[in-house]
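Long-time lurker. I teach an intro course on protein structure, and each term I like to show students one example going from raw sequence to a predicted 3D structure in token notation. This year I'd like something fresh instead of my usual example. Would anyone be willing to generate the tokens for the chain below so I can use it in lecture? Attribution to the forum is fine with me.
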Amino acid sequence: MESLLSSLKINVNTCLYIKDPESSELGQNIISKSIDLIEELGIENFNFKKLGSAIKSNESSIYRYFENKYKLLQYLSALYWGILEYRLVIETNAVEDSSKKLLKAIKVLTLTPQNIAYYSNLDQLKLRNIVISEFTKSYHHKHVDSDNDDGNFKIYKRLVLRLVEMIKDARPDYAYPKSLACQIVEGALQQYFMQRHFTSLVDSTDDKKVYDFFKDITINALKIQ
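-- Reply from a regular --
Happy to contribute to a lecture. Here you go:
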């Protein structure tokens, strides 16, 4: 499996960038350093001037790649979801039993992911931290519909719909497969956020308990083993 993952390249929607950052050393540096800075500062305190200083380049050079910091955030989010989708497909492909495949998918989606070799220059755990803390800010705004029409969330939606199909395969007559799939994917992010910031409102700070929780919800909702 790792040999397949080593050749992975995520095709992020071209609407999210002006120039493909993977096409140049500067662009790759922009992505790598932006992950470090956004994870450290948060999207509110992050800006292209600080990023330019970090990569020792003019702020204007960053605008050749991205229109603004929110497009960059959407790009990073899409990159994360694409990496996760690829691992989901690879790790569930050989599982024939529909219930076991679904539970394996939930494990992939809720537990801390392993790094993928193709993106070894990126800190993928920091990228995950950004998604946990900042992903909702990439679409909780007035322009979400136009962004959605442009396909900015295509990879994220495709990942959720893969999970929807697994739910349907495990329990064809279940009435709420999309609601359950969204709850698993978004809910896992929320649980990790709560673990870090509202510990009095979580049952455990053990990452494995996040998987156990959504596994329990799914088994009870679908009445599967």
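Some talking points for your students: The longest helix spans residues 69-92. The radius of gyration is 18 Å.
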